[in-house]
Transporter PduT (Geofilum rubicundum JCM 15548), 219 residues
Amino acid sequence: MDTITNVLYWLTTGLLVPVVVLLLIFFARALLLGGSFYGQFIQRNKIQSVVKAGLKIKGVAGFSVADFKEEKHNEWIATMASMFESKSSQAMLNHLIGEYEIIADKELGKSKTLTKLGPMLGLMGTLIPMGPALVGLATGDVASMASNMQVAFATTVIGVFIGAVGFITLQVKQRWYADDMNTLEFIAASFEEIRAERKINHAVPCADAKKQELVYETK
């Protein structure tokens, strides 16, 4: 039993360095995610209101994506531009919406990863040094115990910070992409209505022409 316990102790102790390294990597990713999130927030405030106001006032028929050609690097604007180019095909519109949904899910995956792995790594970084800290306490090595406890508390804070950044960005981005999907689906539905109206308008003259032909034939 002592052998198994010693093996487990050395295994868990050996995981401390990889856990700390991963925490530092995810901490850097959390900082980068926070910076990109702020940039997206500024960009959305500038574009979103203008696009929605244009669609509300002009409608899909009078709206022009060309006004946002400088924002083509924005996936939402790029998808919208592709939809206006493929407005005659409902299948292509659905395909473009599906592609944007995949892009949104991929972007949300970054925040989900931080939300889940940050606290997990923080907990591991907390529990692993506790073993050596208790050993130091039992042997009277207060300096070793204090050093291990310092590592434990530091990894906890870093893990919670990573999880908090991931959680906050995830909650906000989910609302963003839900709003984006709603707008894209509105555009697709509007194009479908326009096509249906054109079919009806085209069918009415044809029906009138056939009626006139029948009248002339009876005369």
